[in-house]
Specification:
With 571 residues, this protein is of the alpha+beta class. Helices cover 34% and strands 25% of the residues. 43% of the residues are buried. The N terminus and C terminus are likely disordered. It is a multi-pass membrane protein.
């Protein structure tokens, strides 16, 4: 099998694999878990008290009051007043919160587009079309408790918090005071350069009766509208809810399949819940020893608009009179930054960077990203890092590729004899193939020698595809000149055109012992077909393949020069 056929094999395998992976994302069974048994009572450190079972039915499912239609006049007097909105600005985040929910979050280091003056990426929003909030409240079977909708009020009169120059953290406190002497102080702590917000609840019981309750934390959003088509890479990224537990590891469910996967009622210790999208995500991360229950729901918003919710209920606390208890969690709101996610030291959180649904492909993609990150530290540019990655891969695979090109050169050397066999056997293709195989065997030529290097490279190529698709580090990253975004297609199709030229030159250097004129014509048009396909791929991926093809062309030219001198024709 010659080099041209090798390219064709790769093209079909790559396209088939990408289509299969896309089909698997659409048609694969949605993640689901068997309903958990009723949660047992949870012992706490506050005496010998236990907490009765509280189900998710006690947790408010409706969106915040600002999303609903204005209440009737008699309802308005009974409705709990909304807490004032507090603004917090750090070096990486600008958020608005009201004690029970983070209602808006802007990622200051990530503009929405590459246009000058583009506003920052907004992850959380309160408007009906883009509604997305992180909410947290309490439920209790023994007394009053604050929900995410009302109850918490600011401790301080200020409404604006800014991380001061030289300061590492800024804390924003809220307080709920119950009618029976129980109070809950909630503190949001924002850290410089960090997208993980610490949320700590301290329960104090100054009353005469024990108080028992569960904290709940949830993410609620309107599923986003995702552009489709080859020119929109986000259409291939996962959009939906995800969760991680020690027993079942990483699981997820697309927004489109939210109601098709069955109920989720999973009892876990530790773990996390998240809403994932292209390049960004939000996640609640409870303590690693906290017992809670994960669940999904599809509440209806204003006007019957369908929403998606993922919730963790728990841990529970039992607080005796005069005692106190506390629980805390982290809320990640930001980009899928691999190093910062790893710095959280949360088991399985790295899977939020959804390189692939297949563990082996995710592992290869993670390895490739580590190499790319190292090379980026050396070159300071992701485009040159991709080129450096190609050089490393070509160096590691040199023995295989050398054998491949040497075999192709020997085939070129014996091309005159193959032409003789064509003339001898004419239209008898079977005899021609048998004679050609006999010649290969006699001269020790391996016609399939070009397949193995490509088959080895294909997982690397596909893993790099998902790496470029998912890595927010490469989002809007420029290379040189006209390439302003390596994760978007080449705007002027220059790299795909170069790829066509490289494949055409490779084809000219490669012998083509194909008797069928139709197959020969297909081979001639194959570089153009590949170029059209690559025109819709991310520019970084095309840069990888152009560099790989150019180095392969150079290596093949040298091998042909050394081993490809024509052999004398024999009768």
């Amino acid at each position: 099998m010659n080099q041209t056929r090798t390219f064709l094999i790769f093209a079909w395998l790559a396209v088939a694999t990408l289509l299969f992976m896309a089909w698997s994302r659409e048609q694969g069974p949605a993640s689901s878990a068997a309903p958990a048994a009723a949660a047992p009572a949870i012992a706490t450190g506050a005496g010998d008290s236990t907490i009765p079972v509280v189900t998710g039915a006690n947790v408010p499912k409706t969106p915040s009051a600002q999303m609903s239609a204005p209440p009737a006049e008699d309802e308005a007097t009974a409705a709990a007043p909304q807490a004032p909105v507090i603004s917090v600005t750090t070096d990486v985040l600008r958020v608005q919160l009201d004690g029970g929910a983070i209602r808006q979050a802007d990622l200051l280091r990530y503009p929405q587009t590459t246009a000058p003056g583009s506003p920052p990426m907004r992850l959380f929003a309160s408007d009906a079309a883009h509604f997305f909030q992180a909410q947290s409240g309490w439920v209790s079977s023994t007394g009053a408790a604050p929900s995410h909708e009302a109850g918490f009020v600011p401790v301080e009169p200020r409404r604006d918090y800014t991380l001061a120059a030289g300061a590492d953290q800024v804390a924003v406190p809220f307080l709920w005071t119950g009618p029976d002497g129980v109070s809950i102080r909630r503190t949001y702590v924002f850290t410089r350069g960090d997208y993980a917000v610490q949320v700590r609840d301290e329960v104090a019981n100054a009353g005469a009766s024990p108080w028992q309750g569960y904290v709940y934390r949830q993410l609620l959003r309107v599923p986003p509208a995702v552009k489709s088509g080859f020119t929109h890479p986000e259409s291939y990224s996962f959009h939906g809810a995800a969760w991680f537990s020690a027993q079942d590891k990483f699981e997820k469910r697309k927004f489109a399949k939210y109601d098709d996967g069955g109920a989720l009622d999973k009892r876990v210790t530790g773990g996390w819940i998240a809403m994932l999208q292209h390049h960004f995500f939000a996640a609640w991360i409870p303590g690693d020893k906290d017992a809670s229950t994960f669940s999904l729901a599809s509440p209806s918003g204003p006007g019957g608009q369908q929403q998606a919710l993922v919730r963790e209920l728990g841990p529970g606390v039992a607080v005796a009179p005069g005692a106190s208890a506390s629980t805390s969690a982290r809320l990640w709101v930001g980009p899928k930054l691999v190093k910062q996610i790893e710095a959280q030291h949360v088991v399985g959180l790295e899977r939020a960077v959804d390189f692939s649904s297949y563990a082996i492909m995710a592992w290869i993609a993670g390895l490739l990203f580590s190499v790319l990150a190292f090379l980026h530290g050396v070159f300071g540019n992701w485009g040159w890092a991709i080129i450096g990655l190609v050089v490393i891969i070509k160096a590691l695979m040199y023995p295989l590729s050398a054998a491949q090109y040497k075999s192709a050169a020997k085939m070129r050397r014996f091309q005159p004899r193959i032409e003789q066999l064509k003339e001898r056997y004419g239209d008898d293709k079977q005899k021609f193939q048998m004679a050609m195989m006999e010649l290969y065997k006699k001269e020790k030529i391996n016609p399939a020698g070009g397949c193995l290097p490509v088959l080895v490279q294909m997982p690397v190529f596909l893993a790099l595809y998902w790496t470029l698709l998912e890595s927010v580090e490469l989002r809007q990253a420029p290379w040189i000149g006209w390439i302003h975004n390596l994760t978007a297609p080449d705007p002027y199709f220059i790299l795909p055109a170069i790829n066509i030229a490289v494949m055409w030159a490779t084809q000219k250097l490669t012998p083509t012992p194909i008797a069928d004129p139709m197959q020969r014509r297909m081979m001639q048009y194959m570089p153009v077909a590949m170029g059209v396909m690559f025109a819709f791929f991310p520019a970084g991926l095309v840069l990888y393949w152009v560099t790989n093809g150019s180095l392969g062309l150079l290596q093949q030219w040298w091998m042909t020069k050394v081993h490809g001198q024509p052999a004398p024709a024999k009768a």
